[in-house]
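Project outcomes to date are best conveyed with an example. Our students and postdoctoral researchers have been running inverse folding experiments weekly, and each run begins with a structure described purely in tokens. The record below, which covers 61 residues, was selected by the lab manager from last quarter's runs and is presented without edits.
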């Protein structure tokens, strides 16, 4: 069975946010509004998404 994936889309800017939130977006592969990446659904990715949940939209695939 294939691993679950998450589609993560950045919907807000990281400007005027704490530096660690911008770094978390970069670690997820984001950095510009509207950019979308697919990430494996695991605990570490879920933790990063939780940290920037106000800046991204997440869909389960």
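After processing, the design step wrote out the following sequence:
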């Amino acid at each position: 069975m294939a691993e679950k994936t998450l589609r993560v889309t950045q919907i807000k800017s990281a400007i005027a946010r704490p530096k660690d939130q911008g770094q978390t977006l970069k670690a997820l592969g984001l950095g510009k509004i509207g950019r979308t990446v697919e990430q494996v659904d695991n605990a570490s990715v879920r933790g990063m998404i939780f940290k920037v949940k106000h800046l991204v939209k997440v869909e389960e695939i």
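The radius of gyration is 11 Å. The helical segments are 19-28, 43-51. The training component of this project remains on track.
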